[in-house]
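Margin note: ligand = flavin mononucleotide.
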Amino acid sequence: MNILALSGSLRSTSTNTGLLRTAIEEAPKNVNIEIADWSAVPIYNGDVEAEDGVPASVIALADQMRGADGLLLSVPEYNFSIPGGFKNMTDWISRVEDQPFGGKPTAIMGAAASPMGTGRMQYELRKVLGALNADLVLKPEVFVGLALSKFDEHGKFTDDAGRKFIGTLVEALVTKIRA
Ligand SMILES: Cc1cc2nc3c(=O)[nH]c(=O)nc-3n(C[C@H](O)[C@H](O)[C@H](O)COP(=O)(O)O)c2cc1C
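Resulting structure:
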């Protein structure tokens, strides 16, 4: 079983990418989780789409997503909402023929610096992915607050309770994929 993971943060020491690495550590043996690189996706521009079509970077990402059995997203909260770059990526993806969120088992989690830990963002992201017909895992909800203090100097997630929740989320995604 192949799961494609997308981090909502592109920075090298991202806590959200750290949560995805934790998911890889917690995944059952026969479940492969790969972290996608979507950093080449440009800003959506309807003129570009009309003149040149969907960019190759978007087509390649959509193909990668379509080829996966499920998607695991870990996204931070920016100004109480979805980070612009990540939302922009979903907007481009939504323009691809046979867009890959449609019917795809998809799980969401997130890490943020505040104690609220992406709660507000996740409900907005669920709404957006609902528009794209993603088959969303509803529970457990994984909100990692105060995230910057929960990684050691090697980038390892040190919150055992949070780690357990991530493992349970991966199991729920695997169950949805099998169903
Ligand atoms: C533009 C911007 C807006 C932010 N807004 C919020 C916010 O609304 N809530 C919050 O908890 N953290 C907010 N933060 C802090 C992020 O939670 C923090 O930078 C976090 O580490 C980002 O995730 P990352 O570690 O995966 O990059 C914001 C950060 C940036 C850069």
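The first helix runs from residue 15 to 26.
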